[in-house]
Structure formats: structure tokens, C-alpha cells
Amino acid sequence: MSSKLNLLNFDKAALQEWFVANDEKPFRAIQILKWLHQHGEFDFDAMTDVGKKLREKLKNSFEIVLPEVVVDNISSDGTRKWLFRLADGNCVETVYIPEKNRATLCISSQVGCGLNCSFCATGAQGFNRNLELHEIIAQIWLAHQLVADYQQVEGKIVKHLEKIISNVVFMGMGEPLLNYTNAQKVIDLLLDDNIYNLSKYKVTLSTSGVVPVLEQFCKTSDAALAISLHAGNDELRNKLVPINKKYNLQHLLSVCENYCNTRDRSVTFEYVMLDGVNDTKECARQLVKILQNIDCKINLIPFNSFENTLYKRSTDENIDIFSNILYKAGFIVTVRKTRGEDIAAACGQLAGKFQDRTSRSRLLLEKYKKEVAA
Ligand code: SAH
Ligand code: SF4
After folding, report:
1. Gap from CA of 300 to ligand 1 centroid (Å)
2. What average pLDDT does range 337-343 have in this prediction?
């Protein structure tokens, strides 16, 4: 095994510390991180503003260890999905969604997820482990490289990150607030002017509501916040998003309200549209009632089906009726376009296929249906 350190595992503070411990100036850390992340450069010899002696020292101390690309699928709509194999054999997914005026990268924070939301392919795989900092940041680093290479093949040369990835969302596999130390380190690297230099409105952490950690996020993090709501009452939310049994809607929403008031930010509520489960007019009216004091936007997500799930996507007509009720009540509502369906681009679907443990979601849904019938 190599005795060198993986440079992708260093945030600014850790690299500055390394430089000081090695009798170098801490500002060098920013130079190196800028080369590595903003320019995608990992060849120390190409870092022209670093002296030769220091470059030799860096070459002897650091390397870049990346996951292996096992699947690289490009959908007919341009969505691109990768499955990356980590050193221990586990796989995680990353999805790239280019649009007219932006390009969003959806990253994973855990292998699997233990929160067991009944409509989620990642939840059906169960929890395996948290990702290390380098395993999360490598998804961004590799996506940057792979898309840049791809665009060169198409005859374009795009060098700056913001033209390749303008938005990053923690909406891949896993619950980022249960790997928060690393998720926040990634956010810090993404928002740093000298490193990724992304806007604080364009890096979004999505959570199903791990309230104690959310409180910490709300106090200190500059990233944007998305909450996976999916139901407007506790009874239904307990079934769809089981962490609601621990931290109920009132608790969750009071933290959101306080966040908007104290940080002058708004929240996006995500709401997966499940046919006959949470898509009635009554459900929409409940949302209007519980969200009226919160500065928010509501994002309706048509359910992305996966093998062995018994849920169905709401009809377009019901999504229209639902969104109209919210719109007329004064909310900003968007309906997420379904992208990359031909390449299983929704959260957890590809890794699920590789790990083949989706039968658990069928059992969960059968249990839920029995509970509803009882
Ligand atoms: N654990 C975090 C982030 C990852 S999930 C969270 O739950 O917010 C990212 C988003 O995808 C969440 O809003 C989640 O509810 C949604 N999602 C999961 N499975 C889905 C599916 N099959 N169809 C549509 N949206 C889904
Ligand atoms: Fe985990 Fe999010 Fe999936 Fe729920 S929706 S199981 S929290 S990844």
C-alpha cells in the first residue's frame, strides 16, 4: 500500500496544517487546492506558481486516489449517470443534469441509507457506511473531468468549473446530515472563492429531517436547504419518511421557520408525488396550512419507479390539480422534470441493481398497505 496521502481528503484547514507542519507557508494550501479543484489539475509539475523544490516535496507526499468508473451512461436527454466503485468494493452513484442555463451535479454522501423511506431505492438497500471526504469530493472532481473530456470530444473546450458544474445538490444516495462533518467540509470547499467558487444559492443540502443536526446546519452552514417533506400530516409522514416518528412535523417545521427568520434564507420543500398515497386535494390543502409561515418554494417530484416497488407515479392531471392548489394559495411551485429515465437516473436505482436488495421495499409497502387498511 502507498504511504502517500490522498490529496482529495484534505480541506483547506487540514492542508494548511500540513504545510505549517512541513515548514511551508499556509497560503500554499490555497494555491494547491485551486489547481486541484478549480482547474482539475493533479500533476504537480503543471502547478506553475509553485517552486520546483516544493513541487518535489508534494510529489513525494501526496497522490490522488480516485474511485473506479464502473458505469458511465448518457441518457438521450443529456443526463449522465456514473456508478463509482470505491476502494472497498462498494458503489455510489452520481448524476449530472445539464440544462439550458445551468448544470447540476447530484452527489452521494453515504453507501446506502438507514432511514428507510418507503419510496426510495437507496433506502431499500439499507445502510452500509458513511463516505469519506475524498469519496464525496472525488464525485465532483471526476464529473468535472469526465464532462470536460466529453465536451472536448464534441469539439468544445470548457476549462472553468462553473461552466461545467454550476449547481451541486446532496440528493444522491444517503442522508447528508448523518455524515455531516464530511458534508460540511465538501460545502466549504465548494463555496470557497479560491477553490470551487460556487454560489451559496447553488449548493443544496437535502435532508429528510434529522432535526438535531439540522439545527446545527441552520445556525452555521451557508449552503441552501431542501427538506424532503412528502406528507402534510404526521400519520402519513411516519409511513413514508420513518424518521418523522422521532422528529415530527411540528418540530421539523419550527426549525425551518426559525432558519428563514434568523438567516434570511428560504427553504425548498421536496414532495414526491405518489399515486393515491399523498396526491389528493386534501393533501395539498394540508401543505398550504402547515407551510404558511415559512418562506419557501415547493418542488413536486413525480415518483421515479424502480424494480419491486408497488408505488406508482401520480398522473399528470393530479399533479396539475395539486400544484394549482398550492399556486393559488401563493406558493412558488415547480414540478421536477423527469430526466434520464432510460438510464435509471433516480437516487439509488443503479447501485440498487448492482446490490440487488430491492425486495425489501416490497415488504415495506405491503406492511404499509396493511396498516392503512387496518
Ligand atoms: N437523504 C436525503 C437526500 C437524498 S434523497 C433526503 O432524503 O432528502 C434526495 C431526494 O430524492 C429526496 O427528496 C427523496 O425523497 C427523493 N427520492 C427518493 N426516492 C425517490 C423516488 N423513487 N422518486 C422520486 N424522488 C425520490
Ligand atoms: Fe435515505 Fe433520503 Fe432515501 Fe430517505 S429518501 S431513504 S433519507 S436517501
Report:
1. 11
2. 70
